[in-house]
Amino acid sequence: MQPFPTEPVYIPNPLLDDEDEGVLVSIVSPYMDWDLQPFIVFLNAKDMTEIARGYLPKKYYIPVGFHSYWVSDDNVPV
Fold first, then answer.
1. Shortest CA distance to 5 belongs to which of 40, 47, 56?
2. Helix or strand or coil: residue 33?
3. What is the pLDDT of residues 24-43, one digit of tens each?
4. Phi, psi torsion values for 66, nearest 5 degrees
């Protein structure tokens, strides 16, 4: 099963004027494949190439979120 990225967050470069001069950051969850390790990926916003990737500690899982945010069931009022 393929990992799922969250909605990316755009971070503009404060030193440059172009609209797409910045970085996209997304958390990638392995979803239901517990053999894969979740990671944070940094992409060049101009051409979408990967700049860097940081893996989360082993046994640290992130559920697939909705619009970059995830709330556990016990925090949602019914």
1. 40
2. coil
3. 999 888 777 777 888 999 99
4. -120, 115
